[in-house]
Amino acid sequence: xxxxxxxxxxxxxxxxxxxxxxxxxxxxxxxxxxxxxxxxxxxxxxxxxxxxxxxxxxxxxxxxxxxxxxxxxxxxxxxxxxxxxxxxxxxxxxxxxxxxxxxxxxxxxxxxxxxxxxxxxxxxxxxxxxxxxxxxxxxxxxxxxxxxxxxxxxxxxxxxxxxxxxxxxxxxxxxxxxxxxxxxxxxxxxxxxxxxxxxxxxxxxxxxxxxxxxxxxxxxxxxxxxxxxxxxxxxxxxxxxxxxxxxxxxxxxxxxxxxxxxxxxxxxxxxxxxxxxxxxxxxxxxxxxxxxxxxxxxxxxxxxxxxxxxxxxxxxxxxxxxxxxxxxxxxxxxxxxxxxxxxxxxxxxxxxxxxxxxxxxxxxxxxxxxxxxxxxxxxxxxxxxxxxxxxxxxxxxxxxxxxxxxxxxxxxxxxxxxxxxxxxxxxxxxxxxxxxxxxxxxxxxxxxxxxxxxxxxxxxxxxxxxxxxxxxxxxxxxxxxxxxxxxxxxxxxxxxxxxxxxxxxxxxxxxxxxxxxxxxxxxxxxxxxxxxxxxxxxxxxxxxxxxxxxxxxxxxxxxxxxxxxxxxxxxxxxxxxxxxxxxxxxxxxxxxxxxxxxxxxxxxxxxxxxxxxxxxxxxxxxxxxxxxxxxxxxxxxxxxxxxxxxxxxxxxxxxxxxxxxxxxxxxxxxxxxxxxxxxxxxxxxxxxxxxxxxxxxxxxxxxxxxxxxxxxxxxxxxxxxxxxxxxxxxxxxxxxxxxxxxxxxxxxxxxxxxxxxxxx
Length: 760
Fold this sequence. Notes:
It is built from 4 helices and 47 strands. It folds into 4 domains: about 5-65 and about 75-245, lipopolysaccharide transport protein A fold; about 280-390; about 450-635, no CATH class; about 645-760, no CATH class. Strand 2 and strand 3 form a beta hairpin. About 5% of the residues lie in helices and about 55% in strands.
């Protein structure tokens, strides 16, 4: 296909035509080859090292020296819509009837690009253009220099000698000995590519021969190698790749080592099935366990998307059996208002995540959920259907919901107007092992309510009335197989806002005082004959002071005759509204015993709850302190305590200290995380999660990171407590980052993001 610039050639005079041809062919050969080197040369890496990073941020190359190509000339774009070609030269002469010569500061400017050369000759007989000395080409994203260019206009071909280019938006540099262009086919010899500037090239990719066939969207590279510090470590004699889009091929291998499993090697193979479908197959070798196969299939359709993962390890030498994991997630939109979602997870054994999982978070899973959702969103109402099951890894087997149907509705929020709300559901509960104490059956729950929100500038008042009716139909039980419950609920939520201005250390501040009162009345009804399908006692917290029910789920509705008193205060800056401090304190006062209980509970007789408080301080934008506490005044003990101190002055500087205490669970843990520079190039990163009760480290991670101009090296050691065997699993990871290209070695990014605050 001809360059679109040729459409304007018939309108120009011969000399102008020559100049436009210069411009057009430079765009064709340089703009489409060398500018595409940002794409085409890098696309070579899609097969070699397809974990190509997106364009790096400018500060990623903060250690780089100025480019060896010299100062990039400024680019002044023509006004928008101006399609003219501006040409200038110190001298234009006709050497003969067929040869025109342009000498001295030859410049051709169109739109947002400029081509310059010291001298240019055009031979009309051979239809050949020769460019000499100081060839420079500049666009908003690229800067190119070359020693010589010869272009045959009639054959739509050309030759460039020693082209050198810089991709400004990618901080990438490249060069070649020879570049040949024949219509839509380009050939480059001895091509080099790197994000390291010339003269500071710590790593580089080299291709002996590179062919780019744009008609067939295919590129072929021969004798491809990647070298680091002058030492080649990857070599491929032949590869093919797409000039645009994705390409089937091998991805970067991953290598790691742990004390429990030994050396762990992955070699992913990517299959580009279609623009909206792909698959990755990863053979994995674990020296102490055996060979494993990991597969991933993804699809993205106009109204649906999903992912399927299946991993299998045949005859685990340590476990003594086959291991299998399967995960499937699917989301779909059915029309304008209908949506559906499917989640399915399965593992062959309860130790799978401890032995073979890639994330520490998976090791704490107790159940794997399988569910199918179908929902319809209307105006101010929503319908949802659910089928749910679980695979139990530890603990008790939960009930299955086969199915659950829910309907919720609420009027638009309007102050001073009566508001309605409704929540209703029907659920059928089934169990893997039904017992008289664990019956199966269905439950119908209807929960309508009315409220009247009133508010002013410095106050609010919301009375609310609700009614709840619950009916069961049980299977194979002794006694009543259709128990029911009916209760009325009344509440009153009220609060005031006081504020004053004050000045501290020369800063104008605003302090608020916010008392809040919440009264709740729920009459007692005996619920001891009702089953417990999904209810449990909620953790007590500051937000629990204002809830209608102290139980989760539907099977228990707590009786209440109580009054909550709470007080909050904030300190804000007047100039920008930033909150500097916030403190809250609250307590519930009971006017009768709480007789509705779960089977494992006893009746609560205290006349007041524990005292709960929250505190948050932010004296500086990068320094925060938060704490929560729960104190029992009847026994004079602290029941819960949590505190966190976080300091993050810059994106890669972070310190955080966390403390968690729960008396009822005998839990006392500290978590110290840090990422901090040791020098201009060296960073320290680490995490230490310690259990004070058992006096043992749960997770210790220590790493050193080195950042250079265009590469980085990270060495990380880790010691984790295996929750299954209670043994320490030690591992070591080494990752080499070639900026703008790939990361080589096993990655810890997801773990670092969770474990080290401020990592990016």
